[in-house]
Fold:
Amino acid sequence: MAIGLTHYLVLGAILFSLGLYTVLTRRNAISVLMGVELILNSANINYVAFSHFSSGNVDGQIYAIFVIMLAAAEAAVGLAIVLAIFQLFHTIDVGAVETLKE
Amino acid sequence: MMEQFGLLRFIPLIPLAGAALNILFGARLRPQFAGFLACGAVALSFLVSLAVFWLLPASGVFRDVLFIWIDSEPFKAQLSFQADALTAVMLLVITGIGLLIHVYSLGYMGDDEGMTRYFAYLNLFVFFMSLLVLADNLLLLFVGWEGVGLCSYLLIGFWYEDHTNTIAGNKAFIVNRIGDFGFLLGVLLLFWEMGRQGVWTLNFSELERAAHLLRPESVTLITLLFFAGATGKSAQIPLYVWLPDAMQGPTPVSALIHAATMVTAGVYMTARLHFLFSLAPATLAVIATIGALTAFFAATIAVAQNDIKRVLAYSTVSQLGYMFLAAGVGAFSAAIFHLFTHAFFKACLFLGSGSVIHALGGEQDMRKMGGLRRYLPTTYWTYLVAALVISGAPLTAGFFSKDQILWQAYASPNGSTQLWLLAWLTAGLTAFYMFRQLFMVFHGACRVAEPAKARLHESPAAMTVPLVLLALGSIFAGWLGTPDFMWGSVWDPWLQSVLGVQEAVDDAAPGGELFLMALTLGIAALGFLLAFLLYGRESRVAERIAATTIYRWLAHKYYVDEIYDCVFVRPFTACARWLAQIFDPGFIDGFVNGVASTIRAGSLSWRRIQSGDVQHYLFAFLAGTLLIFAYLLGR
Amino acid sequence: METNLAPLLPSAEVVLTALSVLLLDLFIRKDEKGLLVWISLIGLALAGGMALFLWGSHEGAFQDSILLDDFALFFTELFLGAAAITILSSVHYVRETNIHEGEFYALVLLSTFGMILMAAANDLILFFLGLETMSIGVYILTGMWRERSQASEAAMKYFLIGAFATGFLLYGIALIYGAAGSTHLGRIASALGQTKSHGSIILSAGVFLLFVGLAFKVAAVPFHFWVPDVYDGAPTPVSAFMAVAVKAAAFAGWARIFLYQLSPLQSEWTLPLKALAILTMTVGNLLAISQSSVKRMLAYSSIAHAGYLLIALVAGGESGGQALLFYLLSYAAMTFGAFGVLIALKEGENDHEAYSDFAGLGFKRPFLGMAMSLFMLSLAGFPPLAGFTGKFYLFRSAVVAGHIDLAIIGALNSLLSVVYYLRVIVMMYMEEGGAEGKPFARAPYLYLAIAIAVLGTVYLGVLPAPALDLSRISFISLH
Structure:
């Protein structure tokens, strides 16, 4: 069986769903960040797959590099924020940080 | 015929400058000076208005274009003023009576520490009100319309230390916003409907030229929405509830804003847009009915009030009802005429009541007054004149203007006997409650408590002079519009240039007007008599005790009072009291407050959704996305 | 091949300024940091001058992925102005709170750079990069007051939801790329005509994911939950910056992408967008009523205003675009003003953001009281202030496009909003206490910012014609 565009798209969609599931269910802030990474990478798979199979140019593969770079920047900021949260709240449970509400 | 008249802009701008000076530098000025500044500003404005009035050619229009306000093809609105006969009349009322009330306030507010603030608000009000009547398009009119509401709100809550005042201010504001919403919808709808015909304008003269393009059903809807705005501003059923509460403000404010000028803005607007209203007979019928009902109901409620200012407040609502009745039967000129005369006598009554309250150190309960005639002679005489005028005593202003309305309500093509009957009964009630008040306050034994009684004094000249001028005006203002069998009306021909020629009244019954006039006089006299017998007799009683035997007096009283009490007073006052206490606050207030508290409760419970947990927010995010996708797939 | 750098001029100037601020920050003493304010302002003014100079040009660069048209320049000026006002109103605030000054200004400038890219981008990937540059800057700004736990909490919430939304946006762009073969907006638009059968479901899904990502940025209900918490926790100048500039940038993208390039698909999203507009207005206003903190009330009010702005997007067309741009201007003036007054009440570590802190303000500080009354009345839509004229045009555009129901709901909502805006005025003029005897910030920069906002609010209300013309010309330049 030849591996085609559809397979990559399905893989991307599965990865996206797993990312969603992680973000929505994990209480640990680091895990939530990892879920976000999964979502971004699922998009990357799509870019590369589309670039290879349908668009006929390499733009999509370049975009994937952009996104990897961006994910690194986001991870840096995210981890810094989680660190600040840990110093102030002594926990990284995202559900426990809820002084702002209503 | 349009003429450029560069002075027009100064009518609103001078009071605006006065207000600005008082707001910015008021703290550094002596309070008395702030008052003189404000009076000077309005006086200048009055002089310009007089000039406009004299110079305005027959059926001409003055214009003063400042600049283009909004310019986006195809719609264009200028910030420009326009004065025709209708505007000129309104300007005279606003600046003329406004000036008298400013002067009166010098005396009335003489020892109040917030005097600068007070005069700043008052000048600001004159600015917005003259903007309202000078506007040449609906948008600018709406600016004035909202502005006067804001000033009214600020002045009702002027003595903010007392919390009920703030609440009354809020109520006035919110009830007015309900009406304004209707008004705004009307503007939007009119704009849209006109746009569909290719006419993108809100300018009055252009609207008038294009009015015939509108579909009849949309005209009806638009005018009904405009009238909804008018019921709020001019205190008609069902939005009249704010006006009696608005009496919490200083009395001169009640006289200026809640009697002479602002509350008549709805009547003015109706007359200004008469070309639209005339195209919507259904709306006119609604206006006439609501006007007549308001006139009657408010008058019955006034009968059972004991607060001196509340009687006048309900009386104002009732008189505004007369004006809408006139507008509703198509007699716009009569409505404006009554607006004009009403401004004089109602301002006089309010200022008179202010003089009484001032003399009594703030007391407003009529049961704690009585016999004040001796202490406040000038106030008494002017009050008596104004009470006679509002009751329609012959040859006074109220007589002529009310007579016109009653005659039109009966004989105009849109009128009917039922409308006339309601208006006629109201005339009787008016005389009754006015003289009930006059007797309770000025006649009989003095029921004023001792320490206050010693300090009773006539008010200073700054207050009595405006009273006398207003009383004179109340008598003579009506001579501008006498019926045809006297020397005719100079009023109607003059306003005809703006309001169009009124449809000829059916002349089938010559002398009909005279006959109705006699009937009105009759019921007014009856009202007066009843008031006299029920409330005014104590003074005569005092004389009789001296003249006749006690026994005969007692028997007589027993006999008469018993009949009055059973046949008339008890059911009547019970009914009036029911209206005043159950229907008014219970039903309509309850409705307004109910809506408000439902919204507040909804807001309070809904804010719990904001749980603070970020993952709940993420879930909401995902749910929203899924909903949108469900829509996408299900399409 | 010659590269045309002109379209990058203003944004490059902003980046250079940011870098100079960062560098200089290393070398100057703590009491000389005021210099950084001036450098930032001069840089912004220079960039503004360049944008003005370029006005009227219409050219593209980098294979047309970035466009220089009046629309981009209009938003460039708006963002530069917003950044300048934000910096003016935060000078005092950052000193009181020990926020690191140089980094703060540099981040404001860098976010501004991202926004300018968003408005000028003609390629979805470039738009996305601009959006991320802006967002990452704002995430950090939100959490910059390190000692305050709420600030960090706000930063965390904003970051998590923002990153989540970024994922959706990116995935959506990937799908569009797949269906249209390009991320260039012009080529997507031309592909729309051809591939009606094949990629249509993938394309629609991509467009809707993009739609969701932007709805998050403008804080449309139900993607709005972060707004109250984040605005509440963030330093007040940053809240103002978010409420005005971030929202305006998202609307700029929305206008360019949806109102212009993808407008053939308009019928597809009209209904969900309409539902979003109605929900956003109503929920924002309803929840604003029961707030006890003015800052939180302003957060909900900004949600409601996003709802009003969505009306213009539903209406679309020239009148919708004009109304959108004009209302963004008006909204910027009155919102900056309201947040500015809130900043002026700050005293050391305490924020004084409750309604009760406004009691008696009208008499204690006549200027602040008058300014706040103007902003509140304008937000509530009182004539003749900016908010009224803006709303008039929004509702007008809805009426012209045949959505009279939206205009009615909008008018009803602005009636509802009077309740809570008025409460501030009531507090200031009809209650005593609160502001009694409190030391007020002597902050000339802040007062300058408030004065500018007052002038803007009044000017746009009384003389809206030039700004309306500008809005119309800018929107038309898209075509």
Chain C touches chain B through 68 residues (CB under 8 Å). Strands of chain C lie at 59-61, 66-68. The first strand of chain C starts at residue 59 and ends at 61.
